[in-house]
Amino acid sequence: MRPWISARVVDGVHGAAEFEQYGRRFRFDCDEAHERGGSEAGPSPMRYLLASIAFCSQGWIAKSILERGVPARVAGVDVRTILDMGGELGVPGATVYPPWFVVDVRIEDARGADPDALVLAVQHGVEHCPITSLVLQSVPVHLVVRTDDDVVLDDRPRDVVRADSTPVSR
User: What distance in Å separates the CA atoms of residue 68 and residue 87, rounded to the nearest whole number?
Assistant: First the structure.
């Protein structure tokens, strides 16, 4: 498999990407906020990265749960991070990349599922997602796994828990 995409500048930092897949043409736009030189004509590149991690993880977790026969299903995946905008501005010591990602997995219909088997299936799925595997080569990816109203795994260290204050949608 040789995935490809062709991106071009539309105006300023507003870009568009086009490609063919499944015998159809696709296009999506990408831009930045006004204060960052953009026209807000599309999501930022970081939102596409977060979506890529979420979509890929979600699919591979679903496959892993199915392959292992765990009685559960993936309801959704939230992916979060933080950015130090000082990195963009060239502030010494500030990084331009996110220091970590949190993959927060919501599982449904897990009554009767062994929590350990479920966690192993989720971990296997995340590790086999090509996007998350790539990200893991650069920065930590922390997992939160929720079933209904229970948290069965939260491997975030304290400093990440403090910084990761985004409420989770249910």
Answer: 42
pLDDT digits (tens, 9 = 90+) for 13-48: 999 999 999 999 999 999 999 988 899 999 999 999
Q: Are 146 and 107 in contact (CB under 8 A)?
A: yes
**C-alpha distances out from residue 80 to 1, 40, 92, 119, Å:** 29, 21, 24, 19
- The structure tokens listed for 139 are 């920065």
**Which residue reads 């069965």 in tokens?**
152
Alpha carbon distance 95, 90 (integer Å): 9
DSSP string for 63-120? HHHHHHT-S-EEEEEEEE----HHHHTT-TT--SS-S-EEEEEEEES-TT--HHHHHH
Structure tokens at 89: 């501005």
Q: Tens digits of per-residue pLDDT, 75-120? A: 999 999 999 888 888 899 999 999 999 999 999 999 889 999 999 9
Q: Give 58's contacts (C-beta < 8 A, 6+ positions apart).
A: 74, 76, 77, 105
3 state SS of 49: helix
